[in-house]
Amino acid sequence: MGLVKAIRTFTVRPVLAPSLAPLDRLASNWRWSWSRATHALFASMDPDLWEEIGENPSRMLGALGQTRLDQLAADDRFVARVRAEDERLEAYLTGERWYQRLEGAKPAHIAYFSPEFGVDGSLPQYSGGLGILAGDHLKSSSDLGVPLTGVGLFYRAGYFRQSIGDDGWQREAYPLLDPYGLGLTLLREPDGAPIEIALDLPGARTLHARVWIADIGRIPLLLLDSETPSNTEELRRVTDRLYGGGGEHRLLQELLLGVGGVRAVRAFSAATGRPAPDVFHTNEGHAGFQGLERMSEFITADGLSFGEALAQVRASTVFTTHTPVAAGIDRFPRDLIASFLTSGLFRGLDPVRALELGLESYEGGDPGVFNMAVLGLHLGQHANGVSLLHGEVSRGMFGQLWPGVDTDEVPITSITNGVHGPTWIHPAIKALSERAFGDAYATEHDWSDARVVSDEELWGVRGAMKDELVAEARRRMTASVSATGSGVVPSWVQNLLDPDVLTIGFARRVPTYKRLTLMLRDPERLTKLLTDPERPVQIVVGGKSHPADDSGKILIQQLVRFSQGKEVRGRIVFLPNYDITLAKILYPGCDVWLNNPLRPLEACGTSGMKAALNGALNLSILDGWWDEWYDGENGWAIPTADTASNDEERDDAEAAALYDLIEHQLVPTFYEREGGIPKRWLGMVRHTMTELGKKATSDRMVRDYVTRLYVPAAEHDVALRADGFAEAKELAAFVARVRAAWPKVHIENVDSSGIPQQAQAGDVLEVRAAVRLDGLAADDVAVELAYGRTDENDALAHDRVVHRLRPAGPALDGVTTFTGTLPLTVTGTFGYSVRAVPTHPLLVSPVELGLVTYAS
Ligand SMILES: *Cc1c(COP(=O)(O)O)cnc(C)c1O
């Protein structure tokens, strides 16, 4: 290693001959990362160099050297490939797609904010699932033609690169990235000067940022970067690393993302003529300040009041919550936020009311804390979790924000995550799909017919992908061992793993709830499984611990140490630096993908979906997506020990169940062969690829976001904005009116004298409710009768029917009578309740204001 360290690096781009000129555009559009042909084109320019520079076309063009480029320019076949790829890219960027054919009103432009984006291994701007999901969201939006712009930060050192020392302890390195060298371009003024965003901070400081544009197919991704000469040294470090610091550093990143992000989108629209976004999507709470910035815009530019601006922002905002784990949610000291709200950063915004939007001022909350998820839910009228189960868990977790509202009515829906097929499906499966079905996407095909894809062919491809993983594991471990200690590589490392052995994969970030070391619970039992002389099992593990999380590093160390044991080494291996590049080899190369989180803390999980699309079977706790889509034939469910009295007991029970499944289900099925083929196993593989191919893709996910959240949000935005914000003003006045009156709204009595003791199905009963509206109009309030079966606690079942009662006439002495008839269709123990809620056509949910009054 050289002793002189460069303090800056930069790339000198070569001059391309006219025949090779399209390579520039092909290299700078990240579509190359999921297009096999473009990827292969760049790799073929110099396969060894391609690996060495980390598989990135822009770096490749910078590294090749003029001589080789001149050779290629004179190579007619190569030039013809360049031209063909350029034509394909052009067609991809301009053709009509799903979104253009979608009928009805739809958003003109969606701005999608996320703290991390996982697009490719050579752009390490992600730490795990949240970022990869955001990357896949952009790619599917591109494939579907959705007019979306991504907004994030450019972290100069990205997330860290992991290596493992002799002692099994995680080491972190932060290589600096050169955005030019990666093919990013700066957003510029017409005169060529870089556009800079500025944020006024307390203490008369100003945070400046430039805006990089990464083209993700048809989708621009804007990345704000504080590394500019306009900033002080201190402020240049704001975007140094992803999730690097805590406290103010983290807050500055989130202010830059939210506030700076909105300003960057405005500048981008002005520079390119893109319409202003009518929908803003906040991917997790970190970008929540975008809503406050937009309120500030409405107040200063359109003269709206705080309440009107809030109504307008809520209408057009989609908020996605991604975790039920408290540590995953950003919480800041109230006073710290207050200092930024009064610094002049948010012009025109009442700091006291703005602060209230994020305070945990509910039962069980900490009023000294400003919570970004709370802010997100207050600013986003359209909110969702990321799997059915996570939706349910989120409704419970955030229910305190809607006091008095039944958990199942809390206005948070769910859209289950998905993964981008063209990125995550291995080229070998794509090729097979192309041969058998005529297209490479490999999703939404019926893989069950052995006449279309024979057992030999499918098993052959599965085997080739395993061979690749084994070779890669040997290569990486050899490199890792030679880099530490004596540098001598023992022979067991060179012969690590066996492609014929049942291979289980497990890789993810290493927070405690994911239980990296659950498999080590009973080391003897695990050793027996790994070393069975006839039918052994092997395990490939990976994962990064957050640099500040020593408890995660201890888990990694335990695993590494176990894997070095004489008896088991070679059969269990920890591969360092789990990232997109490793993941693309790891998922297809495993027979089984394991996931054993503490239920229900895994909001969704997506690695198992990527494995499934490549024909791996899942072995998982019924959490996240697996709880929804496990069907008995696509893998195995590890039973959850819900009745365990403590964590230790629970881990023991779940680990025992895991070993049992491996020993009694996986091993026999995998090793049962007919003519060398595991028929039953392959049947499960075919079933997995067919069934999960229909559901587990981010194309399905993005279509769901468009139809269920973006279209309604855009409709609300338009409705509120029309005629000089007439409806926004009306809605804000309504909200103020009902909030003021609500404490006195009271259901005086419910007259159900018509109900006999012995009711019979078919009877029709009349219900009359006398409600004191305290000055509200009868049509400001919906008086609802809910009826259905009751349980032993007299609680109404979830399938209850809700029926709206109508005012019977004008108020008498301040009391309005509402009536309705109730046909008794449900038999058995039956009950009803009456409640009053505010009602307005532009509310998404009847309980979204958190105002509900029940009859007692
Ligand atoms: C998909 C992916 C993840 C997320 O997987 P989970 O199942 O949610 O843990 C994390 N890291 C990488 C590199 C991935 O590709």
From TrEMBL:
It is an enzyme of class 2 (transferase). Residues 17-123 form the DUF3417 domain. The keyword Glycosyltransferase applies. Its cofactor is pyridoxal 5'-phosphate. The modification N6-(pyridoxal phosphate)lysine is found at residue 610. Its EC number is 2.4.1.1. One of its GO terms (biological process) is carbohydrate metabolic process. Gene3D superfamilies: Glycogen Phosphorylase B. Keywords: Allosteric enzyme, Carbohydrate metabolism, Glycosyltransferase, Pyridoxal phosphate, Transferase. InterPro entries: Agluc_phsphrylas (IPR011834), Glyco_trans_35 (IPR000811), Glycogen/Maltodextrin_Phosph (IPR052182), Glycogen_phosphorylase_DUF3417 (IPR024517), Pyridoxal_P_attach_site (IPR035090). It catalyses: [(1->4)-alpha-D-glucosyl](n) + phosphate = [(1->4)-alpha-D-glucosyl](n-1) + alpha-D-glucose 1-phosphate. Pfam families: DUF3417, Phosphorylase. GO terms for molecular function: glycogen phosphorylase activity; pyridoxal phosphate binding. Belongs to the glycogen phosphorylase family. Phosphorylase is an important allosteric enzyme in carbohydrate metabolism. Enzymes from different sources differ in their regulatory mechanisms and in their natural substrates. However, all known phosphorylases share catalytic and structural properties. NCBIfam families: more_P_ylases (TIGR02094). This is glycogen phosphorylase. It comes from Microbacterium ulmi. The lineage of its organism: Bacteria, Bacillati, Actinomycetota, Actinomycetes, Micrococcales. The gene is glgP.
